[in-house]
Design brief:
This protein has 511 residues and is an alpha/beta fold. Helix content is 56%, strand content 7%. Helix 10 (228-232) links the parallel strand 6 (208-212) and strand 7.
Length: 511
């Protein structure tokens, strides 16, 4: 690893000289979750947040269901260290949370700006700090910064501002607008809008860059996600803050290495590390808080929402076990959940149980080794969900628009899963009927919600065309599946579409 390591003298008065490059070029701060951890902001770190969700899932599940011994031991050992933190939210979202995941993210807003926020605000008022770019959801910087700093949401606001001076750029949304939030790996893999990506590269190329409280893990999710790598060789000065004893993320090391003599690692904890750069801290009184209790309470409330119970939490845990490589334990857990769900159906579907049973059966009914059982599970899932929705529609208050979208999403997923198994059994006519039926549900969803289902649609359409001997139609469908999968960042579908196109090409060459 190259790049200098600057060890600031912690505890200085901030009377040191600021880097001369700041005076000539101005300063940009790229800030991550570490900005908002300190009191009185008390925003949970990403690790603490995800750990609270994992603990909540385990508690909810174990409260009502006794897992097989092997699965129980695997669940007890399951750790965030076994998982990609950037994938954790994607697994839980896909398992059951859906849009409600973004509601839970509201807990990541803070109470009051801390010393780091207020020190950056003072630096902005001096004119030295010209732009702040952050991946944080919280609104603490907005509250701390001077009023002439304008806030921009890179996923909502087009085009970027003409001038970078006096701008707070929020790359992943803001806590006050849950639907603006970007947290899922699939979202991040789509990358930033091209205009914003180009704007950031230009910004980082022409300003001094100070990276604070940002590990660099997000940079794994798309090629040069923020334009830092491309800008590094041109930036006049770049320093990346690392906490003591924490090695740099490989992406961070690559950026500092690309900056060559202009790049360095800044070792120390916030906010004191800023003093080593000659910045006087604008101190805010720290107060003891119950961050852990507040976070655990928020997760507990979230897990009592309609449609969530111990079995649904078990589905999420089974997926996490799979993601951690514990496939045998995950299979044992799914088997127990399947038995529980079928028992619930025998008691009769009602509003409180039908949606949960549908979720459980719909997700565990995907088993390559037991095709017939999978088809039966998926059929039961669809019937349970339909019964619930029809009951809701007949009620006076009806079904909300979000409820209709969720219904269409679940139905299209379940039907496409049925189509997959029919294709594997060689029932081409049956699979085609299922794909056509799923299309009706996809078209009932807003365009912004359709993409996650269209990749599966075109994959199945291509397989059906291939089985019918229409190889040109299969190629077109697989190419469309690949295009959609790349757009939404679904790596599994990207690999599947590429594999199918490769097999199709190989078959054509052999003939």
């Amino acid at each position: 690893m190259t790049g200098r390591k600057l060890e600031p003298s912690v505890g200085t008065t901030g009377s040191g000289r600021l880097p001369l490059e700041w005076l000539e070029h101005g300063l940009v701060v790229l800030g991550g979750a570490g900005l908002s951890v300190g009191s009185p902001a008390n925003v949970p770190s990403w690790w603490d947040f995800n750990q609270a969700v994992l603990d909540g899932l385990r508690h909810c599940f174990a409260h009502s269901i006794e897992a097989p011994v092997h699965a129980r031991r695997a669940l007890e050992r399951l750790s965030l260290n076994d998982l990609e933190v950037t994938e954790f939210s994607q697994v839980v979202h896909n398992a059951f949370a859906g849009l409600t995941w973004f509601d839970l993210l509201g807990v990541l807003d803070g109470e009051e700006p801390n010393t780091t926020h207020c020190t950056l605000s003072t630096l902005a008022r001096s004119g030295m700090l010209q732009t702040i770019v952050t991946t944080n959801f919280d609104t603490l910087l907005e509250r701390a910064l001077p009023s002439d700093f304008r806030t921009f949401n890179a996923l909502i606001d087009e085009p970027p501002p003409e001038r970078s001076v006096g701008a707070l750029v929020k790359l992943h949304g803001t806590g006050g607008e849950p639907r603006s939030l970007v947290d899922l790996a699939a979202q991040k893999r789509r990358g930033l809008p091209p205009a914003w990506r180009s704007w950031l590269e230009d910004l980082f190329s022409n300003r001094c860059v100070l990276v604070l409280g940002f590990s660099g893990a997000d940079l794994d999710l798309a090629d040069d996600y923020l334009g830092l790598q491309a800008a590094a060789s041109s930036t006049p000065w770049l320093a990346w803050n690392l906490r003591r004893g924490v090695p740099p993320h490989p992406r961070a090391a690559a950026v500092v290495r690309a900056a060559a003599d202009h790049g360095e690692f800044l070792i120390g904890d916030l906010p004191e590390v800023l003093e080593g750069l000659g910045i006087s801290l604008t101190r805010v009184e720290s107060r003891g808080g119950s961050e852990e209790d507040r976070l655990a309470e928020a997760v507990s409330r979230w897990l009592t929402q309609d449609g969530v119970d111990s079995a649904v939490c078990g589905v999420a845990l089974a997926r996490l076990l799979d993601a951690a490589g514990s496939h045998t334990a995950a299979d044992a857990l799914r088997s127990r959940l399947r038995t529980q769900a079928r028992r619930a159906l025998r008691k009769g579907v009602n509003l409180s149980s039908g949606t949960r049973v549908s979720l459980v059966l719909g997700q565990i009914g995907i088993d390559d080794r037991q095709v017939a059982r999978s088809l039966k599970d998926l059929d039961l899932s669809e019937r349970a969900l339909t019964a619930v929705v029809e009951n809701l529609r007949q009620r006076r208050d009806g079904l909300s628009s979000e409820g209709e979208i969720e219904y269409a999403r679940n139905m299209s997923a379940s039907i496409h899963s049925r189509a997959v198994w029919l294709i594997r059994q060689g029932d081409v006519d049956g699979a085609e009927r299922e794909v056509e039926r799923a299309w009706e549900y996809i078209m009932a969803m807003p365009e912004t919600e359709q993409l996650d289902r269209l990749a599966a649609h075109w994959q199945n359409t291509g397989a059906i065309a291939w089985l019918r001997g229409d190889k040109e139609g299969a190629r077109r469908s697989f190419e469309r599946a690949l295009q959609v999968a790349e757009e939404v960042g679904d790596l599994a579908f990207v690999r599947s579409a590429e594999h199918n196109l490769g097999r199709l090409q190989q078959t054509a060459e052999e003939q």
